[in-house]
Design goal:
- The chain is an all-alpha fold.
- The protein has one domain.
- It is built from four helices and no strands.
- The chain is elongated, with a radius of gyration of 21 Å.
Length: 121
């Protein structure tokens, strides 16, 4: 039982490290989209590890922490994606170092296809 508590504490500590690195990534990234990616990926993993570590440290809480992990796994990426799309449609610029913008390319292609279809009618 003591080994499980020690392992849970180590897993929670590693999760805390990922959360710290996510905060550092938010400070260091050049634009909103990169900050959002750094924050979402590391906070999702950090939160999962922290919660699982707490669940191992307190085995009677494991079911509740597992439910929270399932909720985080589904909601963090979805909310990040929705916020990034909203920011893109609002016109928040990418960093000048960005090489590729697939969403803008898809929008341009869709607009061209729509105009092409309207010309044929």
């Amino acid at each position: 039982m003591e080994a499980l508590r020690l392992f849970g504490a180590i897993v929670a500590l590693i999760g805390s490290l990922f959360l710290f690195l996510g905060a550092l990534g938010i400070l260091r990234m050049p634009d909103l989209y990169n900050r959002m990616q750094a924050g979402t990926k590391s906070t999702t993993l950090g939160s999962i590890l922290t919660l699982l570590g707490i669940g191992m440290y307190h085995p009677d809480w494991f079911l509740q922490t597992f439910i929270l992990v399932a909720f985080l796994v589904t909601t963090n990426p979805l909310s990040s994606h929705a916020l990034a799309r909203a920011a893109h449609f609002a016109g928040i610029p990418l960093t000048k170092k960005t090489v590729l913008d697939r969403l803008a390319e898809d929008e341009a292609q869709e607009k061209a296809d729509t105009e092409k279809g309207a010309d044929h009618e």
